[in-house]
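Re: folding output
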Amino acid sequence: MADDPLFILVVLSCAAVLVILMLGIGSFGVGGKVAHKHSNRLMRWRIGAQAVAIALILLFVWLRGGN
């Protein structure tokens, strides 16, 4: 499965969601102007990246048989 390009794309998209989530939580932790400026935007980016990751996961399951 590791040599499947779609699987690698799914893993990378999930990793991108994790990175964006950690950056967003980190900016919440800093507080002040940094949090006010970046936290909301990062969480919106996370929602978009998460939607893409879910779509890729569903595509992967559908194309590979779903069992």
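--- second protein (sequence, then structure) ---
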Amino acid sequence: MVRGKTEMKRIENATSRQVTFSKRRNGLMKKAFELSVLCDAEIALIVFSPRGRLYEFASSSILETIDRYRSHSRNNTPTTSDSVENTQHLKEEAENMMKKIDLLETSKRKLLGEDLGTCSINELQKIEQQLEKSITKIRAKKTQVYMEQIDQLKEKEKALVAENAMLSEKFYESFNQSSPSSDVETELFIGLPETRTRRISPMLRTN
């Protein structure tokens, strides 16, 4: 028979509630004992029954465990003064960051030629010098990119010339192999048609 799932709510029947409390309390004590033995854990368990009766389990001394818990909680819980100081520090950091952002936005607008009405001569000269430095760097980078592209094109040209020479060589080899080599005989006649004699040109005579 499959055991049904217990609904997590208060048991209304007093007798059933007391029986369930006793069973679950014993099971909880047993699990705490097993955990302390198997894992060498320091455990302190305190249970009060609905009638106010105390049940407790401790792997060592329950008072020492409670003192240890209080000390741990005290050391890891920030005090009110610490919280106020941390909040104030975070607020100051946020204000400083906002000021830096405003300065960067103002500088950006001036570099774009905006909001220059309040700038002094010295400020305008500094902006001009900064722009000139930026232009110099940009031009140097552009020249470098052009040179790299030219080098790449030269390499492609060399590769194409080599490929063209190889294709030409293959074409001539194929042409020479496909052309037949045969002896040519040329007839040369001298004199009138009635008395002409046949001669073979010595330059084209075959051996």
